[in-house]
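Please review the protein record below. Tell me whether the encoded fold seems credible here:
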Amino acid sequence: MTSSAPRVAFIHTGAVVIPPVAVLAREHLAGATTVNYLDDKIVADLGDPERAASVPERLIDLAQAARAGGADVVMFTCSSISHLAGPTADAVGIPVLRIDEAMADDAVAAGERIAVLATLPTTLTPTLALLRERAELAGRAPEFVSEVVAGAFEAVAGGDRATHDRLVGAAIERLAAGADVVVLAQASMASAAQGVDVTARVLTSLDPGIRRLSEAVAAL
């Protein structure tokens, strides 16, 4: 790191998450310079057999651009690409953090029955893998149930946040009845957690993820 303020690069797969990340960055990364990189076709391309293989290289290219611009640390803000953080860090030579790792740690510590909700199958699979990884590291073996909330992604992609939140909120209430904790796999789902009335904990990735990032920046 240089003697100037630390620089943090966020790599996004959707523009919708940039504003809430910026709010939390101002709160928890005071004194750091932040920069955003966006490839808004990655999630779609992960579901395309002809394009999926290009994603790891594209992420490395973005992280290399961030490093060339002076970034000391990178954070992936999308759970669909969390599993590529390690290989990207190895290729680029600076830390690459996962927005959802802290949430996963909180989830496996919170109970033995974990419900996982996503609005895309390309996010659900890596989130379950991350939860199992963090559970194994913690010496725990929770039970998982999961669901892709039909219609929610299409709603928010079309600008209908209210319908997205209604659909996800209903799924939270349904799955929470049999769970100790409900994990919302995507940062873009966080708004749906507001207003639900359940006894299970409902976890989202943004706040714990940025808090963990602030710890990493402080340790640079």
In short: The longest strand covers residues 7-12. Residues 100 and 205 are 5 Å apart (CA to CA). The two ends are 7 Å apart (CA to CA). The chain has nine helices and eight strands.
